[in-house]
Write a structure and sequence with these properties.
Elements: E1 2-6, H1 7-14, E2 17-21, E3 27-30, E4 37-47, H2 59-67, E5 78-82, E6 89-94, E7 98-107, E8 110-119, E9 124-132, H3 134-138
Antiparallel strand pairs: 1-4, 2-4, 3-4, 5-6, 6-7, 7-8, 8-9
């Protein structure tokens, strides 16, 4: 497909696919990728398909996924957080004298959901991990 790109965006596209300049001289354009008004060229871009689908979650989608494996309190009684600089998410809740947490992350192309329950003393009383197929994550919209 043809795109009008500034130089920084063209270099970024070069790392994820094939890119070939169609014109020789840079002119003032509005970049299709970043929307900025810069000097750039018209390019032919062939994007590669990612080998591994990227995981994406929010509180609602993670709550629905975990509720298939565990009994959860209402959504307002759970705490959701994202692990910085990774594609991993936590869902924590208090479960009748136990601290419960679910951890969703990527591992070798699959998603892994780990559920752990601890006493208030910090002793783990229950832990189980589930390898989730990509098809199960497409339905709630957790795949980019």
């Amino acid at each position: 497909m043809e795109k009008t790109l500034c130089r920084p965006c063209a270099e970024g596209f070069g790392s994820i696919g094939k890119i070939k300049a169609l014109t020789g001289k840079a002119v003032k354009i509005t970049c299709d990728a970043c929307g900025r008004r810069r000097f750039g060229l018209r390019y032919e871009v062939e994007e590669k398909k990612p080998a591994v689908p990227r995981l994406d979650a929010n509180k609602t989608s993670l709550y629905k996924l975990v509720s298939e494996f565990q009994v959860l309190p209402t959504m307002s009684r759970t705490r959701f957080s994202k692990t910085p600089r990774t594609r991993s998410w936590w869902l924590r809740w208090d479960g009748g004298g136990e601290i419960c947490e679910a951890y969703l992350s990527e591992s070798w192309g699959d998603a892994v959901l780990s559920i752990r329950k601890k006493d208030w003393d910090g002793v783990t009383t229950y832990q189980e991990a589930f390898r989730l197929p990509v098809d199960k994550l497409r339905e709630p919209g957790m795949i980019e």
